[in-house]
Amino acid sequence: MSIWNAVLLGLIQGIAEFLPISSSGHLAIVNNLFKLSNISEGHALFQSLLYFASLVSVCLVYGPELRLMGYELLSFGNMGPLAGQERAHYPAARCFFMLLLGTVPLFFALPFNSRIEALNDRDIFIGIMLILTGCLLYVSERMIPGTKNEKSMSVTDALIIGLCQSVSTIPGLSRTAVTMTAGVAVGLRRDFSVNFSFLLSIPAIFGAAILSFGRAVRDGIDWHSVPAYLVGTAVALITSVGIIHIMRYISRKGRFGSFAYYCWVVGVLSVILHLIF
Predict the structure, then answer these.
(1) pLDDT (tens digit per residue) in 147-177
(2) What is the pLDDT of residue 62?
(3) What would the pLDDT profile of 16-73 be if each residue is shown by its tens digit?
């Protein structure tokens, strides 16, 4: 893999992972269209490093929230943050348990991992999923958000969002768009829905990084490409941090409807280009 390929793929990962436009879909389309080094074939280590960059970026931006969760979880007597008045006393700890619950449905997607990865070669399918992502964003734009936050969201809310996240492992479906829309649909505040989506990505991205690293160890590592991998990883990390800040700003000041039109355009172009070439 060349450094320029790695930079391009790292840039796409950094931009698309946290914007509601599907990083997996964009990476697959670029790989298939321009015949770049496919990170799912022989470059699993690079894929793992890109996931690691995304993971670190979330932890950096949400460091204060994560530290508060740790503090409340370690607080004396904090044994029941899911019930009663404990909600008010331990909101960060309660959010942590909601994130755990939201992660559970991902385990049901694991048996289908190889079949899901095989879809990366089908540009028509990815294009259709991007169009569907646009439809979700369009609907989300017109939803009236609720008032729920970490103190008031329910176990059912967390499980529904987590179930939607497990479906979004399909390439072309944006994890951010799906979980964000699900959050608004169950009555979360729009800004909290975005924050919960990003925090929920931590265990999901960590799991994906471990799976990719395991595949890299099994298939072998292209050591000559490691310098390019590191450059691409740095690009992905820096870009991801910037994009997360932008998304948090948009969630406070505006909405995400404009991304729907982008997904529709890219999805349609993906289908057309596949049919032509």
Answers:
(1) 999 989 999 999 999 999 999 999 999 999 9
(2) 96
(3) 989 999 988 888 888 777 665 555 556 788 989 999 999 999 999 999 999 999 888 8
Using CA atoms, how far residue 196 sits from 104, 133, 151, 192, in Å, is 15, 19, 12, 6
Give residue limits of the domains in the chain: 3-276
Distance of alpha carbon 181 from alpha carbon 148, whole angstroms: 14
In this structure, what token pair is assigned to residue 68?
């508060």
For residue 77, the model assigns a pLDDT of: 53
pLDDT at 26: 86
Please give the span between the terminal C-alpha atoms of the chain, in angstroms, as a whole number.
24
DSSP conformation class of 36:
P
- Asked whether the beta carbons of 164 and 179 are under 8 A apart, the reply is yes
DSSP state of 37: P
Determine the Cα–Cα distance for residues 80 and 90; give it in Å rounded to an integer.
9
- At 228, which helix (H) or strand (E)? helix 226-253
Residue 173 and residue 153: Cα distance in Å, rounded?
25
Contact predicate 16/26, CB 8 Å: yes
Which residue has better confidence, 231 or 23? 231
Whether the Cβ atoms of residue 51 and residue 17 lie closer than 8 Å to each other:
no
Do 168 and 137 touch, CB atoms closer than 8 A? Answer: no
Q: Which among 250, 237, 233, 232 has a CA at the least distance from the CA of 59?
A: 237
pLDDT band at 83 (very low <50, low <70, confident <90, very high): very low
Q: Which residues contact 112 (CB under 8 A, 6 or more apart)?
A: none
> With the CA atoms of 174, 180, 183 and 187 taken in that order, what torsion angle do they form, in degrees rounded to the nearest 10?
-140
